[in-house]
């Protein structure tokens, strides 16, 4: 039986929609370090501890597109990763460090501006058996 996410957090993008791209990146970086960096969260579905490291904050804020929905979700990322359900395994890329075995891909639901959205989250699986939040991988629609 597939686990069901029973709690769905809510966020709003009202103030974030007014910011420029460069400001959004700065806010995203600050929010990650405020709410996520250094934490370790146990995922309910797989029972694994997932660590939030500083490099992931930089990747989230500066690695790809940044938009108000993505930034709004950052403060609740630890809760979402705790509630997320495992979706599939992704192979490592040739450019990834050798310590990475692959990626565990998760899905979590969140209400963004009162609209239910499915968030996709990638977690690095490393050779030493540790797991690290990698990036929230949704694209702007």
Description:
The protein has 141 residues and is of the alpha/beta class. The protein is 26% helix and 33% strand. It has one domain. It is built from four helices and seven strands, in the order βαββαααββββ. Strands 1, 2, 3, 4, 5, 6 and 7 form a seven-stranded mixed sheet that branches. Helix 1 (21-35) packs antiparallel against helix 2.
Structural features:
141 residues, seven-stranded mixed β-sheet, alpha/beta, 33% strand, globular, 4 helices
Sum this structure up briefly.
The chain has 4 helices and 7 strands.
Sequence-ordered SSE layout with sheet pairings:
Layout lengths: L9 E2 L9 H15 L4 E3 L6 E3 L2 H9 L5 H6 L3 H7 L1 E7 L8 E13 L2 E12 L4 E6 L5
Parallel strand pairs: 1-5, 3-7
Antiparallel strand pairs: 2-3, 4-5, 5-6, 6-7
Helix pairs in contact: 1-2
Domain count? 1
Pick out the low-confidence regions.
none
**Rg from Cα:** 15 Å
The separation of the N and C termini measures: 31 Å
State which percent range the strand residues make up: 25-35%
In sequence order, what are the helices and strands, one letter per element? EHEEHHHEEEE
Q: Mean pLDDT, as a whole number?
A: 91
Number of strands: 7
